[in-house]
Amino acid sequence: MSRTRSVTDSLGRLVEIPTEPERIISLCPSQTETLFALGLAERIVGRTRYCIQPKGLVEKVPVVGGTKKVDIAAVQALQPDLIIAQMEENTKEDVERLTAIAPVYVTRVESFAEALESIQRLGDITGKAAQASQIIQEIEAAFAELVSEAAALPLRVLYLIWRKPYMAAGSRTYIHSLLERLGWENVAATLPGRYPALQEPERLDPQLVLLSDEPFPFSEKHIPEIQRLWPRAEVRIVRGDYFSWYGSRMKEAAAYLHTLVKSLSV
C-alpha cells in the first residue's frame, strides 16, 4: 500500500494523494505541458485531446475525452492514482464523478501570480518541487527583462477571443493579469464578466487590438472589419497560447511578447 498525504488544492479542498504518484492523468493542456517540463513523462498516463504539447512526447499518452466532457470510463480503465484538473477548463460535474476513481487535485489560475503558484503546486504534489522552483525562476527572469521594455510603451489594449459576438478577455483572467504586467490597460476590464461580449464595441477606445488565433481562429482576413470598428487602433494577430497558456510555456511566451513589443508602432 503506497503512502499518502493530505494536501489542499487551489480551491481549498483537502485531497488525500499518494506521496509519490505514479499514474497521473492531466485534464488541462497547459498543465499537461508543465508536467512534462517537470520531468514526469513516464508517469503521465492520460490527457485530453486538447493536450497537444509537447509535440513528439504527448502523442504517446492515451486520450480521455475533452476538457469539458471527460470520458469517465476511459479514465477508470487507466487506473490513475492522481487526476489533475483545472477550475476553468473542467466541469464541476466531471470533477465530482472522477473523485470516485482517484484523488482529484484542482488548480485555479486567474492571474500571473497564480500561474507561478500553480507551477509550484504541481511540483509539490508530484515530487518535483525543485524542478518547479527552477522553472519559476527562469520565467521571472525572462519577464523582468520584458516588463522593463513594455513599460516604456503604455497602451490601452483590447484582447479579442471570439467573433459574432465579439468577446474579450476581461478582469479576473490570466490574460488580463498578463496585460497588466506589461504595463498595459485592458479596456475590457470594467465590463461585467471574465470574458464579456461587447455590446457597444465602438464605445471602447483601444490603441491596440490583439486578435487571438484561439479559441476563435482570427486571421488577417478579419483585420479590415476590426479596423472599421476602431480606425485609430493598431491591429495584430497574436498566438493565443502565448497569452493564455500558463505554466512552463510562460518562459517561451516572454520571448514572443518581447518580439511583439519591439514591433509595435502605436
Architecture overview:
This protein is of the alpha/beta class and 266 residues long. The chain folds into two domains: 4-108, Nitrogenase molybdenum iron protein domain (Rossmann fold); 143-263, 3-Layer(aba) Sandwich (Rossmann fold), CATH 3.40.50.1980. Helices cover 35% and strands 17% of the residues. The chain contains nine helices and eleven strands. Strands 7, 8, 9, 10 and 11 form a five-stranded mixed beta sheet that branches. Strands 4-3-5-6 form a four-stranded parallel beta sheet, with helices on one face. The N and C termini lie far apart (61 Å).
> How many extended strands?
11
Instruction: Give the total of domains.
Output: 2
Spans where pLDDT lies below 50 across 5 or more residues: none
Number of DSSP helices? 9
Give the DSSP E fraction (strand runs of 2 or more residues): 15-25%
Whole-angstrom Rg: 19 Å
Q: Looking at CATH, which topology of the largest domain would you report? A: Rossmann fold
Instruction: Give the overall silhouette.
Output: globular
Percent helix among the residues?
25-40%
